[in-house]
Design a protein that fits this description.
The chain has 90 residues and is mainly alpha-helical. It has a domain of 53 residues. It has four helices and no strands. The protein is rod-shaped and about 105 Å long. InterPro entries: Anti-sigma-28_factor_FlgM_sf, FlgM, FlgM_C. Belongs to the FlgM family. Keywords: Bacterial flagellum biogenesis, Repressor, Transcription, Transcription regulation. It comes from Halanaerobium kushneri.
């Protein structure tokens, strides 16, 4: 039974052209990303932290000298307070 005198080949050609146009439209869209001001601040801060040395060499040297000479004393009350302060946060 023929409804209209339309050939299946022409329908397939039309369908393929429509699919091709849709594919081209999808490819034509540009993806974009926007970074918030806060994110930019964080990126800048990280870059600055990377520039800083990991160890404060002069402080480490001074502490090492005090430990080796036997002049380094720990304030036990201050140490206990700091430990308790950190435990309370958790």
């Amino acid at each position: 039974m023929k409804i209209n005198n339309i050939q299946a080949g022409k329908i397939n050609q039309y369908y393929k052209k429509m699919q091709q146009k849709q594919t081209e439209k999808k490819q034509a869209k540009d993806d974009s990303t926007q970074i918030s001001a806060k994110a930019k601040e964080i990126m800048t801060a990280r870059a600055e932290l990377k520039k800083m040395p990991q160890l404060r060499e002069e402080k480490v040297a001074a502490l090492k000298e005090r430990v080796q000479s036997g002049n380094y004393q720990v304030d036990s009350k201050n140490l206990a307070a700091k430990i308790l302060n950190n435990v309370e946060r958790v």
